[in-house]
Amino acid sequence: MPSTSGSFATFRRLGTKLVTDRKTETRADYRHTLAIPVRWMDCDAYGHVNNAIYYAMMDQVVTVYIVETGVIAMGTSPSIGLCVSSACDFHQPIEFPEVVDARLRIARLGDKSVRYEVGLFRAGEDHPASTGHFVHVYVDRTTRRPISLTPEQRAALAPLIVWQPCLDRQRAVRPPRQVDGRRRVSGQLTTCGPDTYGVITA
Asked: Looking at residue 163, what is its pLDDT?
């Protein structure tokens, strides 16, 4: 079921897998950027950045954004985001001494959770060296129980939200229901894939 909070209504994944591949994305598909220099110590015996460092870079672009925009405050904010899901796909090797262009967007903004998607780009390359995501669930700092995002947190995260082309941006969309193996949204059939979300402004 969709979750609604503030001025956003967010809808879950629709249909079957998209034909498009995230490795063909470009920088324009993201909403925020952070330059991350590759350190000598980031490289493994094969001469390229170790796979664990890709995750660290993804984590860095997310964390820098949410701290700088006040989504959380280290040590003092009432709520914190805990990672409950993550993934990374590797498309190209990254080497020292490159400076990675880490790109960030939000694919889903829920009542208590956020799906951050990241693309790591090499200089001079149109498509990402890696793509991945983190899903954070926001919890009370003390009790660790899930807690709704505040209007202030949602406002800080809003600039990262991306639209998906299969949903009408200008109108509210009802929750999808199954129709002959496909999904029906607002009376119209769609073949959008599992990485597609609709975020509708009220």
From this structure: 65
